[in-house]
Amino acid sequence: MARAADRDAEQERSRYSHLEKMTDLVAVWEVALSDGVHKIEFEHGTTSGKRVVYVDGKEEIRREWMFKLVGKETFTVGATKTKAAINIDAVSGFAYEYTLEINGKSLKKHMENRLKTTNTWILNLDGTDYRVVLEKDTMDVWCNGQKMETAGEFVEDGTETHFTVADHSCCIKAVSSGKRKEGIIHTLIVNNREIPEAVE
């Protein structure tokens, strides 16, 4: 019985082992991309000069004994290798400000841009959660980090993009709103049921 408890405790420790090492954790961001929502963590040792970047719990950059405490760390995020950078700026004395850029834009601008260029839906099929993302500029469809095979067709009132998720027929309908400011309205239909759009 004691062995099972020891094994359970060891598994629990190993799941969070990277957090135990993060004694200089100064910033955590969540970034929504087409292939998923990614967690970026940054350690900055202001006495040792250490800089460590983790993406989804995996160490991407480690620099020890950096004498220059300000600067920039660049790396990529996700399956699409999206460019990211953490800017380290001195605010006053020994206080620092950390800002995240995605594709050269502040995180705020990146999120505002995503609202215009993508649609996201969250749905549950057969007890499994799925995150479906439409990139409006390319009409690429992503589901849980995978780019989907799609078939597009023109229909009387717009276009339909067909694909399958877990043996369920899915269709993204694109129709004109009739209003210039609103543009095209994209609707996800799964099993003849409209799925409400998610806000990330």
Automatic annotation (TrEMBL):
Signal peptide: none annotated. InterPro entries: FAIM1, FAIM1_dom_sf. GO terms for cellular component: cytoplasm. Pfam families: FAIM1. GO terms for biological process: apoptotic process; negative regulation of extrinsic apoptotic signaling pathway via death domain receptors. Plays a role as an inducible effector molecule that mediates Fas resistance produced by surface Ig engagement in B cells. Belongs to the FAIM1 family. This is Fas apoptotic inhibitory molecule 1. It comes from Pipra filicauda. The gene is FAIM.
